[in-house]
Every structure is written in C-alpha cells, then in structure tokens.
C-alpha cells in the first residue's frame, strides 16, 4: 500500500475527530450557549448537511486541480473555521462554522477517496478505501475520547483548538507525500465529462446502494449523537465514563474497518448483509438493555464494529459500481454517508423532544436499520429482475 494512502488516512483522522467529537461535548455546548440538547445535536446535523452539499460541489470544483493543491486548500479552510468556532460566543456562528468546515471536509473526502483508489491496483480498492475510512475510526478511538476529556476539564472550546492543532502535522505530511498531479492522472489523463459522471446516478442499483448506505449511517449517527446523555441519564454512568465509552465505539469501528478492508473485495455481499442484520438486532438490544452498564458498553463496542465495517464495504461497492465517475464516485459515497448523518441526529432529536426518553434515539436507529434492510432487499430483487 503506498504511503500516501496512509497520509490521507492521517488527515481524515484530524477531520474525523471534529465530525464525531460533539457526541462527548453536547451537554457542555448546550449549557454554555443556553440551547437545548436537541439544538446542540443539530450542530452534528449542520456538519452533515455541509458534507452532503459540499461533496459533489467541491469534487466538481476541484476535479481539474492538482490533487495536492485541492487537499491542502480544503484542510486550510477546515482549520480556519475551527479557530472561529473556538472563539465565538454565538450558537448561530458556531452552527455556520460547522457547516463551512463540513463543506471543506467533504471536498477533502471526495478527493481523498478517489486519490487513494487511483494509487492502488483494482483488487486493492476496498483496502485503500478502508485505510482512508480508518482515519475516522482512529479518531473515534483516540481523538473523540480525548476531546471529551478536554471538554470535561477545560470546556468544549478546548476540543476545537485541539482539532486545529492536530491538522498541522497532516498538512506537512500531505505536502511531503501526496503526488502533486491532477486527480486520476494515472488512469484518466482526459477528464471525464461531468454529464457522463452524473449519468451513472440513473442506475437504480447504484441509487439503492446509496440509499442503503444513508440509512445505515443514519442509524449509527442517531444513537452516537446522543450517546453522552444516554449513558449519563439512562445507563447511570458518570460523565467520566463517556470518553471510555466513545473509545470502545472507536475500537469496534477500527476492528470493523480492518475486517472490511480484508474481505470486502472478495465477499462484499455476505459482509454487507450480515453486518446490516447484526446492526438491526444490536440497536434493538441496546434500547432494551441501556439501563445495564455492562450490556450497554459491550453493545457500544459491537455496534461500532458492525457500523463501520458495513459502511466501509458499502463505500467500496459504490466505487465499484461507478467506474465511469472517477471524480464523483467518492462524492456520491460521501453524500450518502452524510445524508444519514443528517437524518440520524434530526430524527433522534425529534424523538427526544417528543418526550419519549433517552432511549428513543436508539429505537429510531433500529427502525432506520429496518428500512435499510428493506432497501437492500429491493436492490437484490432489482438485480435479479434485470439479470
């Protein structure tokens, strides 16, 4: 595996810490800015909306740029908005910085995914994608719990400063190790027309794969965004346990991505199907047993594993099903991933505001996985009908 692929994973680690760290800071942000938990949860949704909007737009914006220049620009903007977010006393400004940072992050993701798979042989595409996504899982293991510790000791703003600082070595590593050529220069010297790239979305098989990915990630983010209040107000754990629980989710995520990187190229259908069934059962089990600390912590580990393992396999499937979209295939995956990240916290917030209790987002996660299984089933029927 080229070292440049691991450098991309390092940069994704820095950005992934920001995307996920609010799950351990949500109560502190709500109190400091005098907003509700649901409103604080919308900061996660704002980030996801920015990813959804930014992925295709930034991929098109940067499609003819030298890949290194595009990656560095996106990362520099990401750092700048985190500095602003750390300084602002306004919820509205913080919400805007989450959106802007996500647009930059989306551009980075779209270019990083297509760059990573362009640097390896076809049979290693899933493994290259797993390395990039693995940066997010390392963020869950190390960055997110560290952010929660910083937030508990020095306030949530310290976590934003930390993210900006962590991005600095990623910038230096990108300059030294990522090729400066244009995106996909090795395999597509002449850029594919935008109409051709967008045309792959007319395939029902690809659309159903993207919808399945969105629902799977929606289920994940629905519970993950409200994990801190679930653990402290329903499970009965102290705030000091939250970083450990987030680390458990991250460890599970790392295991899942590693397994997916090994087997998704060989047995993608079996991996995705078994992961989705396990997720549906696991979220329901967590909703039922959230009052038991041992059961809740064990399920957090397991669900992290299946969520990111299945998600990585679905990303590889999208890249495999859209070879005619070398610039936008990564954007399609990023958009679907973050549509789920938008839907999940929003749906979980509605359930909380409706007074259904702190287990409600977990039940919503189970329902979203039920829809994901139905969508995957529809895809299989469609494949059989078309031969």
Radius of gyration: 19 Å
Order of helices and strands: HHHHHHHHHHHHHHH
Shape: globular
How is the biggest beta sheet arranged? Answer: none
User: Could you give the count of β-strands?
Assistant: 0
Low-confidence sequence ranges = 183-189
H/I helix tally: 15
Structural class by SSE content: mainly alpha
Task: Look at the structure and give the mean pLDDT.
Answer: 83
Describe the structure.
With 387 residues, this protein is mainly α. 81% of the residues lie in helices and 0% in strands. The protein contains 15 helices and no strands. It has helices at 3-21, 26-33, 37-61, 67-87, 91-118, 125-154, 156-177, 194-199, 204-224, 227-235, 242-263, 268-289, 293-321, 329-353, 360-386. Helix 3 (37-61) runs antiparallel to helix 14, helix 6 (125-154) runs antiparallel to helix 7 (156-177) and helix 6 runs antiparallel to helix 13 (293-321). It is globular.
């Amino acid at each position: 595996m080229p070292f440049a692929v691991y450098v991309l994973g390092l940069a994704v680690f820095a950005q992934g810490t920001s995307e996920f760290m609010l799950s351990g800071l949500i109560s502190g942000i709500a109190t400091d800015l005098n907003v509700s938990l649901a409103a604080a949860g919308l900061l996660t949704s704002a980030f996801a909306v920015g990813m959804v909007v930014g992925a295709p737009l930034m991929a098109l914006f940067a499609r003819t740029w030298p890949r290194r220049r595009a990656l560095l620009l996106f990362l520099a903007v990401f750092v700048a908005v985190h500095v602003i977010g750390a300084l602002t006393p306004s919820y509205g400004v913080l919400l805007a910085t989450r959106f802007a940072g996500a647009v930059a992050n989306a551009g980075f993701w779209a270019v990083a995914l297509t760059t990573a798979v362009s640097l390896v042989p076809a049979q290693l595409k899933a493994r290259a994608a797993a390395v990039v996504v693995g940066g997010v899982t390392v963020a869950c293991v190390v960055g997110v719990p560290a952010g929660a510790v910083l937030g508990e000791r020095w306030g949530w703003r310290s976590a934003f400063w930390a993210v900006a600082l962590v991005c600095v070595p990623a910038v230096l590593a990108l300059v030294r190790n990522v090729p400066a050529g244009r995106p996909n220069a090795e395999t597509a010297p002449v850029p594919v027309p935008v109409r051709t790239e967008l045309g792959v979305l007319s395939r029902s098989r690809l659309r159903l794969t993207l919808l399945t990915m969105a629902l799977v990630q929606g289920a994940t983010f629905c519970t993950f965004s409200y994990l801190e209040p679930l653990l402290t107000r329903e499970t009965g754990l102290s705030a000091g346990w939250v970083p450990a629980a987030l680390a458990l989710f991250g460890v599970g995520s790392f295991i899942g991505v590693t397994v997916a990187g090994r087997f998704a190229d060989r047995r993608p259908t079996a991996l995705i199907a078994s992961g989705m069934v396990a997720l549906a059962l696991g979220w329901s089990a967590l909703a039922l047993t959230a009052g038991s600390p041992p059961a809740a912590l064990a399920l957090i580990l397991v669900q992290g594993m299946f969520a990111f393992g299945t998600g990585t396999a679905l990303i590889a499937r999208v890249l495999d099903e859209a070879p005619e979209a070398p610039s936008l295939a990564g954007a399609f995956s990023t958009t679907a991933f973050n549509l789920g990240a938008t839907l999940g916290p929003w749906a979980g917030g509605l359930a909380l505001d409706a007074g259904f209790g702190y287990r409600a987002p977990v039940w919503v996660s189970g329902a979203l996985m039920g829809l994901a299984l139905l969508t995957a089933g529809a895809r299989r029927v469609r494949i059989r009908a078309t031969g």
